[in-house]
Write a structure and sequence with these properties.
With 245 residues, the chain is α/β, with parallel strands linked by helices. It has one domain: Purple Acid Phosphatase, chain A, domain 2 (4-Layer Sandwich), CATH 3.60.21.10. It is 31% helix and 22% strand. β7 and β8 form a beta hairpin. The site of zinc ion has 7 residues, from loops.
Length: 245
């Protein structure tokens, strides 16, 4: 089976469309998986929810999804994120809110566990270090775990007998083998990359050849920024897109 893994779309429609067309350009996949944070920050929450609902039946909840739906408090976020979330909520229909509210925290598909943050705390926790990765190993049963939330393409490779993980740089175009080692795989962010590369990020999985490939895709950043300005979204959120941070 072939899967595409999309995380942290953040209502960035230009980035999402560019990624979906890159997936087609790569020969297409059997399923597109979504690791949450469909909305928040960006200018097109409704359209992004619609696309995810149609094209990614397997999607887990992110902290921004549940905050936009009113399930968690926006006061837990920094002021810019909270202000974007208040605006996002004003754009959503009851149906959109229900869709976001009902997103599950964890899914198991094929040999993968899907979460937004970490298997320990799926909505909030970041997996950024080998210690985070090691601590999380006993919280998922599948060989591999797919994570988002940090907006950084990352790979943690861990022994299946001892908790000795190492961090491997997930460079675009690099591919790694889905072998015997346990892996935590972060595809990076579609709509707000933070690794100083402003291009949209996602990953492709092929369970037959056993490969995972990180992809980067150019998209019309200026178009997303224009729409954000039009809706009065915070300046810092607009600027960070072109800087990839
Ligand atoms: Zn996010």
């Amino acid at each position: 089976m072939k899967y595409a893994v999309l995380a942290d779309i953040h209502a960035n429609l230009s980035a999402l469309e560019a990624v979906l067309s890159d997936i087609e350009g790569q020969g297409g996949v059997d399923e597109v998986w979504c690791l949450g944070d469909i909305v928040g920050y960006g200018p097109d929450p409704q359209r992004c929810i619609e696309i995810v609902r149609d094209q990614c039946p397997d999607c887990v909840a992110g902290n921004h999804d549940w905050a936009a739906a009113g399930k968690i408090k926006t006061s837990l976020f920094n002021p810019e994120a909270a202000s974007a979330l208040d605006w996002t909520r004003s754009q959503l229909s009851q149906e959109d809110i229900r869709f976001l509210t009902d997103l599950p925290e964890v899914l198991e598909r094929d040999r993968f566990t899907l979460v937004h943050g970490s298997p320990i705390s799926p909505i909030w926790e970041y997996v950024l270090s080998v210690w985070d990765a090691e601590a999380s190993l006993k919280y998922f049963k599948t060989p591999y775990c797919l994570i988002g939330h940090s907006h950084l393409p990352l790979l943690f490779e861990c022994s299946d007998t001892r908790t000795d993980c190492r961090l491997i740089d997930a460079e675009p175009g690099n591919d790694r083998q889905l072998g015997k080692k346990r892996l935590l795989i972060n595809p990076g962010s579609v709509g707000q990359p933070r690794d100083h590369d402003p291009r949209a990020a996602y990953a492709l999985l092929d369970t037959e050849s056993g490969r995972v490939v990180w992809r980067r895709v150019k998209y019309d950043i200026a178009e997303t920024q224009r729409r954000m300005s039009r809706f009065g979204l915070p300046e810092w959120l607009i600027q960070r897109l072109e800087e990839g941070r």
